[in-house]
Amino acid sequence: MKAQDLLSAWRRRQKVLGHLVRLTVRTNPRVAAIILATLGVQSVAPALLATTQRWLVQATGLGVSAGLLVALLVGALAQTANTAGNRVQTNLRFEVEEKVDLVLGREIADITTTPSTVDHLESPEFLNRLAVLRKSSGRLASSCWTMVETAGSVAGLALSVALLVGIHPFLATMALLGIVPLMVAKRGQRAMDRIRDLNAEGKRQEERLHMLCVRPEPAKEVRICRNGWELSALADRLWRIGTRRETVAQLKASAWEAVGWSSYLLGFGASIAAVAMLCRAGQASTGDLVLVISLGSSLRIQIGMTVSGMTRLGAVGHIMGHYLWLRAFADSGEKASTAPPSRLAKGLRLRDVEFIYPGRGTPALSGVNLDLEAGSVIGLVGENGAGKSTLIKLLTGVYRPTRGTITVDGRPLTGIRPGAWFAKQSGAFQDFLQPQTTVMESIGIGDLEHLHDRAFVGSSAERAGADSVITQLPQGIDTQLGSLFGGVEPSIGQWQKLALARAAMREQPLLLVLDEPTAALDPQAEHELFERFAALASRAGRQCGAVTVLVSHRFSTVTMADHIVVLDRGTVVEQGTHAELIRAEGLYHELFTAQAKGYL
Ligand SMILES: Nc1ncnc2c1ncn2[C@@H]1O[C@H](COP(=O)(O)OP(=O)(O)OP(=O)(O)O)[C@@H](O)[C@H]1O
Question: Cα(254)–Cα(249) distance, rounded to whole angstroms?
């Protein structure tokens, strides 16, 4: 890496650190000041205590045994004060860190929702980094104090070393030997970080498998197939692999630490012996011996705190690296500035559109050229996996084509502000939401502007045919939905009608998308519903030139479309009206006839 890159990476980290410090101080400035003062006193306490002990022994002219006893008593008193101070400080810190962690949690959620497209939610690298960040956000939240603590430890350590060197320069070796555990611990921490990154994907897999066994939705299939035990065993195996890796890394780090500390203890013993000899030769006083013993024992703790502070700072730096990567990723999207038209005059055009899902080698769509005329209803048909939903995802803008262009009345879709384009759409999808809220909210969130407008929500429900569902509910539109909160659990078909009512909330969309929204309805209910939607689509078409795209496996429904597009393995193989396609006797004719026979 070039020096310039290193410098800008360092600057970015400083910026995040500055942000974390501001967050911490703003949470409660008075408490932050108390914690800062306590940490300051604690960092110089060992040097202060050792100097007091030396002074007491020298001023009272006590012998070695009496001097050591007095020093011990003063030391015990100081230790008690230190423990009490620590307790207060820990409690205060806990409260501040909790609040900072909460804000960070919101920022992390923001990182996942900032990009207008959703392909990052399927990128293993994004998800792995996010998993590590989520798990370690607490360390980021405490990073401000880690920094202060480490700076205090370094200052206190420097003061202690200065006092020791004042007696004899040889005593500096005691502190030098203390650097050995510091270096070794850093190495151990790096190994642990590597293992955590390596384990991130396995941990996600393990969590997902675990959810399959405990969530109510997959529970039925899991019970019937009796594969719960196997899924659990698989999750268990992943857990064991991850834990084994972490334990081995932890044991190695501990072994290295033990070697480091042993060398320090040897140095401490040698230092005491050396000062005792200096005392005997009259070159040092009993007070000096007391100071060396006092500092030597607290030096171990000071070095330990410096080591752990540096290690924690290293870990914070590593986590910050993930945070910065994710932030940069979230902000890297195209900066679109064009507004969508208020009504469509020409429609949507696709030219040589190709799309490859992240991590997939083969395109889900390729060479797609389509003219979706303003005001028309387009039917999309094709066998499973033909690319219908993928095409819908590209039109809505949640995915960008990997090649080719999509234009909205001649304006490239990539240049239109994503939020503004989303606001001009309305839709119901296969994997529709099932919000466990009141019916009113469940429908109203389709257009937040009218969320609390009972009349508006009611008429949307009516247009989508969901009024029949609402009249059956005990509190009508105010009924709580979902068993999680003691509400009524609608059937899948009823949930689907509510999803359609949500889609009907936006009265003047430019793009109306219906991706198999009626799969759970019986044919009669589906027919009635599509008649309502045909009315809705033609009204939107007349008013603002809306394009309605309809995906359905039921050909009886698709026949109502003005123009039908047939997809096969990611390419458009036929298009035209129902009558034209039947006459052409191609794939559409084949699929239509097969389904018609099935209904006989
Ligand atoms: N999230 C994804 N990641 C990777 N590949 C995907 C993803 N979603 C779909 N695919 C692949 O893209 C191809 C087209 O899928 P798509 O869902 O668009 O088909 P479809 O016509 O809507 O199918 P269906 O009728 O079953 O809903 C398939 O080969 C599928 O495996």
Answer: 9
